[in-house]
């Protein structure tokens, strides 16, 4: 049977008309391209991003809900049997036991929380302090920029270990929050310089000049036009710094300057196990291995984000 003929006077559905209709519908539903959308599309295709994101997700879940990974509470003294000290890995103790007879696997799992908290807290503080000061200094320039730049040079001249020792000696106690504050005080100049340089580059762009010519206020220029286009380097550095701060906390705890017992961190576990390393290597090797994997995962993630946000590397 033949198809029904179109009504008289009706325009024929030509191929060009159908193509124009489809093109118009696609134009209405197409989502505009942008830096962040392109970066996310690029990240999803990078194996380096996938591997690092999975590792970081596991560590974050371990830090947030350690009971999902072990039923043993390392803070319960009843779970430590001195007669079982320095045993090797077994079905009852996957990573063996430490010098006090405590389960090394449970302590490693619970130690992730304090180590990650120090890294996250220090990263947030340095990104906020250094980022905001760098934004203002780069946008304003003049004497304010000169003063802040000289202040950062003073902090860069202070040795990290000596500065941390001085700050932590003021508090007279090593907790997660005092270590976080000590690291943030020493590390914010780095994010300040990176943000300042990015803002100085962005403030001379045509879109900023046009917005200033249209009467945009200083606050609108900084936070609406400059900040979204200058924050990418800060995100990359903060991602890498998160792993660096976790390693720094472990170093301070290893030296006896960081988090103190009865809190548990990977650095503190390594420090406690080094004296009997030849008798029982597990209490040192397992937290050290998890520390290394975590730091490496954040560095890998930062490298992947950097490559995705830089159009020249695509």
TrEMBL record:
Start and end residues of each ABC transmembrane type-1 domain: 112-302
Cellular component, GO annotation: plasma membrane
A Pfam entry, by short name: BPD_transp_1
Membrane topology of the entry: Multi-pass membrane protein
Parts of the chain that traverse the membrane: 47-69, 116-139, 151-171, 177-195, 230-248, 284-305
Any GO BP: transmembrane transport
PROSITE patterns reported in the protein's UniProt record: ABC_TM1
Record keywords: Cell membrane, Membrane, Transmembrane, Transmembrane helix, Transport
InterPro entries, sorted: BP-dependent_transpt_permease, MetI-like, MetI-like_sf, OppC_N
Region (Disordered): 1-30
Keyword Transmembrane helix assigned: yes
SUPFAM superfamilies registered for this protein in UniProt: MetI-like
Stretches assigned to coiled coil: none
Basic residues bias (residue ranges): 13-22
Protein localization: Cell membrane
PANTHER family, per database record: ABC TRANSPORTER PERMEASE PROTEIN, OLIGOPEPTIDE TRANSPORT SYSTEM PERMEASE PROTEIN APPC
Family indicated by similarity: Belongs to the binding-protein-dependent transport system permease family.
Name of the protein in its database record: Peptide ABC transporter permease
Organism: Planomonospora parontospora
């Amino acid at each position: 049977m033949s198809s029904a003929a179109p009504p008289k006077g009706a325009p024929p559905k030509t191929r060009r008309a159908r193509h124009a209709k489809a093109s118009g519908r696609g134009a209405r539903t197409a989502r505009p391209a942008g830096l962040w959308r392109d970066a996310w599309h690029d990240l999803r295709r990078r194996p380096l991003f996938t591997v690092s994101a999975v590792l970081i997700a596991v560590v974050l879940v371990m830090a947030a809900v350690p009971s999902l990974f072990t039923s043993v509470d390392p803070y319960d003294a009843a779970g430590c049997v001195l007669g079982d000290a320095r045993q090797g890995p077994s079905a009852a103790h996957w990573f063996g036991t430490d010098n006090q007879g405590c389960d090394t696997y449970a302590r490693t799992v619970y130690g992730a929380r304090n180590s990650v908290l120090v890294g996250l807290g220090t990263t947030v503080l340095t990104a906020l302090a250094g980022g905001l000061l760098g934004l203002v200094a780069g946008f304003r320039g003049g004497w304010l920029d000169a003063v802040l730049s000289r202040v950062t040079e003073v902090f860069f001249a202070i040795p990290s270990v000596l500065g941390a020792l001085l700050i932590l000696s003021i508090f007279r106690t090593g907790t997660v929050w005092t270590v976080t504050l000590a690291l943030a005080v020493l590390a914010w100049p780095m994010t300040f310089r990176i943000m300042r340089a990015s803002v100085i580059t962005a403030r001379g762009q045509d879109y900023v000049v046009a917005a200033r010519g249209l009467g945009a206020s200083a606050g609108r220029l900084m936070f609406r036009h400059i900040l979204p286009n200058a924050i990418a380097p800060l995100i990359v550095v903060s991602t890498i710094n998160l792993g660096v701060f976790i390693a720094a906390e472990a170093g301070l705890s290893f030296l006896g300057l960081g988090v103190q017992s009865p809190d548990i961190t990977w650095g503190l576990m390594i420090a406690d196990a080094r004296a009997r390393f030849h008798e029982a290597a597990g209490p040192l090797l397992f937290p050290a291995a998890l520390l290394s994997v975590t730091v490496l995962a954040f560095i890998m993630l930062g490298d992947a984000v950097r490559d995705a946000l830089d159009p020249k590397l695509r």
